[in-house]
Amino acid sequence: MSLRNGLLLFAALAAGAYLVQRQLNAHHDGAFVSGEIDPDADEVPTDALRAFAAGVQARDVVMYSTTECVYCGQAKGWLAGNGFAFTECNMSVERRCEDEFRSYGAQGTPFLVVRGRQMRDGFDAHQFLRILKQTSGGKA
Questions:
Q1: How far apart are CA 54 and CA 83, in angstroms?
Q2: Ordered domains of the chain (ranges, CATH)
Q3: Angle at alpha carbon of residue 19, lines to 16 and 75, rounded to 5°
Q4: Which of 119, 121, 134, 137 is the most buried (most CB within 10 A)?
Q5: Contact predicate 61/112, CB 8 Å
C-alpha cells in the first residue's frame, strides 16, 4: 500500500469514527431522557436544548455585563444560539445595572441571576442548565 493510499484510508476511518461518535452522542441516553435534558452530559442534542429553552422566559435569566466584556459576549452568544430568552443588564450603559450588580456583592462579569440563583463564577452552561432544571421540577 502506498503512503497516499494509507493516508486516505486513515482519513476515511477517522471520518467514519467521528460520525459514529457524533451519532452516539446525539442519542446518548444521558443527554435526553423522556423530554428532559441532562445538564451534565457532554453534548445535548440541539433540538432537546431548544425545546428546554422554550420554557425559559427573559425575566428568568438576568445577565449583568459590560460592553467590553469578551466573556459576556460568549455567554450571550451561547444563550441566544440555543434559544434561551434572557434579560441583559449592561453596566456600561445603565447605572441601575451597576447598582444592582453591586447589591449582589458580585465581583466579575458575566454575572447571572437565574430564577433567583446567582452564578458567581461567570457563565458555565452545565451550571446554568442545572439551575434551570432544579428550579423548574426538571422542565424549563
A1: 7
A2: 31-134 (3.40.30.10)
A3: 145
A4: 119
A5: yes
